[in-house]
Write the structure tokens for this entry.
Amino acid sequence: MEKIIWVRSNGKMIGAKEDDGLDIVNKYLEEGWSVKHISACAVGDSINQGQAYIVIEKNDG
């Protein structure tokens, strides 16, 4: 089984917490899923903002 999870970074300031999607990825990894693929890119012209999709998989067999 595979899942695709989008994560993003909005160049957050130190101390500011936003839901970037990594908590969800970490939850799946703790449950035995593994990362199959990651693809990332910048958002617009900013070097501080980016987005990625992470394909995770779990072998149910």
Remarks:
- The longest helix spans residues 22-30.
- The two ends are 10 Å apart (CA to CA).
- The chain has one helix and three strands.
